[in-house]
Amino acid sequence: DLIKHEYVAPSNDVERQLKEIWEEMLGLDNISVTDNFFELGGNSMNAIRIIGEIQKRLNKLLKINVFLEKPTISELALIISEMEDKEEDVFRTII
Questions:
Q1: Which parts of the chain are coiled coil (predicted)?
Q2: Domain with 34 in it
């Protein structure tokens, strides 16, 4: 049976989009940004589908090991935000 945690709402747009993707792919409602992907019933096949949706919607390519290391929406959102910061730095360097 699922472990119940206190619900934590998304605090930014990346977290909101990830929550929407997870809920669609896992067939669940009211996923907290602190819920563990695997405790929610996520598996490697779900992770691959979610990675595909993240790439499509957010234009960010994550590796499967990210889900092993960062299995919550809040942790993944932080990784994606850091990717955006690095991309902005590269863009500024080019200009």
A1: none
A2: 13-94
